[in-house]
Amino acid sequence: MSAMVKSIETDTADAQRELTDGFHLLIDALKLNGLTTIYGVPGIPITDLGRMAQAEGIRVISFRHEQNAGNAAGIAGFLTKKPGVCLTVSAPGFLNGLTALANATTNCFPMILISGSSEREIVDLQQGDYEEMDQLAIAKPLCKAAFRVLHAADIGIGLARAIRAAVSGRPGGVYLDLPAKLFAQVMDAEAGTKSLVKVIDPAPAQIPAPSAVKRALDLLKDAKRPLIVLGKGAAYAQADDAIRALVEKSGIPFLPMSMAKGLLPDTHPQSAGAARSTVLKDADVVMLIGARLNWLLSHGKGKTWGEPGSKKFIQIDIEPREMDSNIEIVAPVVGDIGSCVAAFLESMGSRWPTARAEWVAAVNAKRDENIARMAPRLMNNKSPMDYHGALGALRTIVKERPDAILVNEGANTLDLARGVIDMYQPRKRLDVGTWGVMGIGMGYAIAAAIETGKPVLAVEGDSAFGFSGMEVETICRYRLPVCIVIFNNNGIYRGTDINPTGGPDMATTVFVKDSRYDKMMEAFGGAGVHVTTPDELKRAVNAAMDSGKPTLINAAIDPAAGSESGRIGNLNPQSVLKKK
Ligand SMILES: Cc1ncc(C[n+]2csc(CCOP(=O)(O)OP(=O)(O)O)c2C)c(N)n1
Ligand SMILES: [Mg+2]
């Protein structure tokens, strides 16, 4: 090799060393901010981004459908308080991910959907580009914030804005639009490094006003029949010890919303979980901690809440506009849950009057009565199983394995499991959340396994599972310790409906009879088991959780056992026309 050729080669190498591009800037910006897992689906224009990210030490989990990747990112955000990152291709991939972004926003999970998009010049003139779509405009109304980056030098700032928007204040979903051209844009490497931003204190504490805390405590102190409602926001806050201390110091019965179960164990002496209707009806002062008065709490009014005007509400929430959203809040306390609870504990001092004995005794009596009434149903060993028999088995398993994460979706499968399966540790129950959305199952299960390293038990209605079922391949591919139990009752709510015309089509809520979902798992090298009794179910789940091997258990449930829409059938509109 001549000296001249050698020198040209060295010069080229030097020149390359001194340049960076959009691909690398994004990867460096993610790593700089500790965002080291990406959930996504590859394709133009982000295939190489995924490859390079993997090469640079980011864990890139490839899914079969973006909605599941997006749900994984959303729940990763809930579990870690850092935005979960989802990466999608333009237009259709983006739209597939968007449902999950909207779901994350509704549930207040921090998440960033990063999507490649097509050429702005062509998209804006609507000239028919490959996967043409004005993605930024479409994302905007469905998330907390949406940004587009056009210059490589702005990637650092763009990601910093996305992170802050996702986790500060009330967390939510953020969209980051990255047109294809951006990835290949080059710039000086040193300037590139300087353009990156490490976000300092992304979710600053929001300290409540002392006067607001005093107002709330004065009300609580005078209450005769107080109640604490713990919401998903309380679970998100990771202020577990302080919340437990507050509940215990106050001596007040507490009611956990679905994903707040386990913040204090459901078996805690102050738990009013099994006396829900009594406490909602009879309490005089209700303190909401990270719980919204939305449909899940009947908007704070109506029959559920007893006599109109019989309640006063204290609400602790990070979002000031949450106050009075459904009903008057007498004592609003605005701040992050951790700071608020700490302020309460401090102000309560050492002479806080503990529980009103009569009220606590009444709540406990009701709770114990309801638990005793349920007990024999949970021990039945019928075959085909009913929900209670099957759930009785799973309840014991969760009791013995309290650090396992329970993912749960369906109608009857959800509502009954929520009531039956006690939780013992915070953030171990992940479910359909604010929307009651089907399809979160496999995405949540995958992210739960990856983010926590704990075993996952996913209890799925057969319909619910179908929304994300193809991800069993992903579970097998990454060898995740996920055990899926399908409550197979041959359909949605029940498997017994009949087509009223007598024609050959099935009824609208009915699936293929006696399907074997376990075979799906076997197709990808996982373990598949078919069970028909609670004892078999228990053995199969224990074996799966001991082995840590991806497993799908097809649990045959009596098709007649369920009820329409589980526990929320009252929300179905009724036709006034007489049935023929
Ligand atoms: C995205 C979405 N689509 C549709 C629904 C309506 N929906 C509510 S529950 C449910 C399925 C219930 O059946 P299954 O999961 O089998 O539970 P089961 O009651 O039979 O135990 C459906 C389709 C929904 N909640 N979300
Ligand atoms: Mg079903």
Note down, in words, how this protein is organized.
By secondary structure, the chain is of the alpha/beta class. The protein has 23 helices and 19 strands. The strands form four sheets. A six-stranded parallel beta sheet has the order 3-2-4-5-7-6, with helices on both faces. Strand 6 (145-148), helix 8 (155-167) and strand 7 form a beta-alpha-beta unit. The longest helix has 22 residues, at 357-378. It is globular. The structure holds thiamine diphosphate and magnesium ion. Thiamine diphosphate (TPP) binds at residues 410-413, 436-439, 461-464, 487, 489, 492-493, 562, 566.
- Biggest beta sheet summary: 6 strands, parallel
Structural class: alpha/beta
Radius of gyration: 26 Å
Shape: globular
Quick overview of this protein structure:
The chain has 580 residues and is of the alpha/beta class. Helix content is 41%, strand content 16%.
Helix/strand layout:
Elements (H helix, E strand, L loop, with lengths): L2 H15 L1 E3 H11 L4 E4 L6 H9 L3 E4 L3 H15 L3 E5 L3 H16 L3 E7 L2 H5 L10 H5 L5 E4 L6 H13 L5 E7 H5 L1 E3 H7 L14 H13 L3 E5 L1 H5 L3 H11 L3 E3 L19 H7 L2 E5 L22 E6 L13 E4 L2 H12 L8 H22 L8 H14 L4 E5 L2 H9 L8 E3 L9 H12 L3 E6 H5 L5 H6 L4 E7 L29 H6 L3 E5 L2 H14 L3 E6 L24
Bound molecules: thiamine diphosphate and magnesium ion.
